[in-house]
């Protein structure tokens, strides 16, 4: 795990400088670029590390020279992802080349997407990276998430071009369709409605309805049917821990308590808050019966958590208060890491790369 923690430390140091630097400072852009390169190196040059290693390696290695044949031979996989694999195969059969390009696309969209929506992209990225480490290896969905996050400003502006990005993301993971709701979320929703929705979601979560919905999704198409079967048989399909429930509940209370104070400092706060509420609703509805659906389906919504957690920095006046709060978030990122990888800890710890810890053998699945 030390490689991840070295990266976290560098990002945290940059986040401290970011607090004092002017938004137009070229130093900020330089730090963002360094973070971008380091993230690509750590994630793109991993080997036998992360989820879904074997199936995605097999897909990459077994593609036919003909794109049409490759698509026909992989009926349960989205066309966009197959085209990406096929394109890389045209000039290299090295899976590490593919992973580096994948990481380059993903982190470009995430980092520059963050830079467009918050003054504190480094600290937000640190929280995002640590909280999503456990899905590292979910190649298709991560590309879909990146596309959606990069287009987030279009959803904020209610620009209909946003739906083009949703369609593009669906070419990599069909579940991206649920992010269409982002277009409607740039509004202030009353606390009564939010809490009422949370209560209803909790009640529904303990009814047979979630299983019925999951079964319905399985009948929509061959791709969705395959996903349902995989998710239903996943190791992660178990009741989520109380810790996850407490964490999300406390965060919601915190975000609601500071909303009135933050709205005048951070104009898009309600947009990101509403997305987080959607994440909580998904958790409550499906968390007691379909854990893997929560992990995957809520990923599109959880990406805003870092933006919300760093938002109080907008209203703090004193720099020592800002630094102290940043230090608290840095400590929180380590909690996120261990919660994130807890289901598949053996796939992440220790880190293995093509030039680091390369003698270590890890059974992958």
TrEMBL record:
Keywords: Membrane, Transmembrane, Transmembrane helix. The chain crosses the membrane at residues 6-21, 30-47, 95-114, 126-150, 162-186, 193-217, 237-258, 270-293, 299-316, 323-341. InterPro entries: EpsG-like (IPR049458). Pfam families: EpsG. It comes from the Bacteria. The keyword Oxidoreductase does not apply. This is EpsG family protein.
């Amino acid at each position: 795990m030390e490689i991840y923690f070295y990266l976290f430390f560098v990002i945290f140091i940059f986040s401290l400088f970011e607090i004092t630097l002017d938004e137009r400072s070229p130093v900020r852009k330089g730090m963002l670029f360094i973070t971008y390169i380091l993230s690509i190196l750590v994630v793109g040059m991993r080997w036998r590390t992360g989820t879904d290693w074997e199936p995605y390696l097999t897909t990459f290695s077994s593609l036919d020279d003909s794109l049409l044949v490759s698509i026909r031979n992989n009926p349960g996989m989205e066309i966009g992802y197959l085209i990406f694999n096929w394109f890389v195969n045209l000039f290299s059969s090295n899976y590490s080349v593919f992973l580096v390009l994948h990481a380059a696309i993903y982190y470009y969209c995430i980092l520059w997407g963050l830079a467009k929506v918050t003054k504190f992209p480094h600290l937000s990225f640190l929280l995002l990276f640590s909280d999503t480490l456990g899905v590292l290896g979910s190649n298709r969905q991560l590309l879909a998430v990146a596309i959606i996050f990069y287009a987030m400003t279009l959803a904020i502006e209610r620009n209909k071009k946003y739906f083009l990005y949703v369609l593009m993301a669906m070419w990599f993971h069909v579940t991206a369709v649920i992010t269409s709701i982002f277009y409607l979320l740039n509004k202030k929703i009353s606390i009564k409605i939010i809490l009422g929705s949370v209560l209803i979601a909790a009640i529904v979560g303990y009814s047979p309805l979630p299983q019925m919905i999951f079964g319905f999704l399985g009948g929509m198409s061959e791709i969705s049917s395959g996903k349902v079967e995989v998710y239903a048989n996943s190791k992660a399909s178990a009741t989520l821990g109380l810790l996850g429930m407490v964490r999300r509940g406390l965060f919601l209370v915190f975000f609601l308590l500071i909303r009135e104070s933050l709205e005048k400092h951070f104009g898009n706060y309600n947009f990101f808050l509403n997305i987080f509420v959607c994440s909580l609703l998904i958790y409550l509805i499906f968390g007691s019966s379909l854990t893997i659906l929560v992990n995957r389906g809520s990923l599109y919504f959880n990406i805003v958590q870092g933006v919300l957690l760093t938002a109080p920095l907008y209203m703090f006046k004193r720099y020592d208060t800002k630094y102290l709060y940043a230090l608290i978030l840095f400590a929180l990122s380590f909690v996120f890491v261990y919660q994130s990888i807890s289901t598949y800890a053996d796939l992440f710890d220790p880190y293995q790369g093509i030039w680091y810890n390369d003698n270590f053998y890890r059974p992958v699945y």
